[in-house]
Amino acid sequence: MIDWYPDLPPKILSAGHEVGLHCQIHRRLTDINEIEKDFKASAEWRKKYNVQGYRAPMINTVEGVYPLLEKYNFTYSSSVYAPSGNVIQKGKISEVPVSTFPLLSKPKKISAPRNMNLSLVIRGEFPYGSSMMSGLFPKTVFNIIEKELKAGLSPVIFLHPYEIISPQNFYKKNSP
Fold this sequence. Notes:
Blueprint: H1 8-14, H2 32-41, H3 43-48, E1 53-54, H4 65-71, E2 76-77, E3 81-83, E4 88-90, E5 93-95, E6 98-102, H5 118-122, E7 125-126, H6 131-136, H7 138-150, H8 161-164, H9 167-170
Parallel strand pairs: 1-2, 2-5, 3-6
Antiparallel strand pairs: 4-5, 6-7
């Protein structure tokens, strides 16, 4: 995105938000050497925009990512799924999970990495923080978000730009 829309990060920062790293080139990223290449390739712009957060592509990561996150000066990751209200400490890295809603019972122990898979779904975790779920089940997701907020929780959700902006507007560059 930075290469395509270099004017976007300053706009994000000036609106009071932060810029994070999802990946330099979007692909399944679970090989430590590939992850490190990605971190090196993004080093200049991460420093320029004071990037602190990381979200693994496809919310799928590996244990070895946490020492690399420390090495490359990240402070947190949001690369696993778990019920709202959980933060998992991995060395100096805080793992802030994308929200799931436990339909049956809340898991007793949460650890990272923790990828969404069939086993979690069978045990009753609905990954409502995933943009795919808000697209497939918008009313259900909005009801869960409302319930979680009323319970004093802070749901962690993600949306891709193309999910909230029409495609014809997404690719237009704004001229000054």
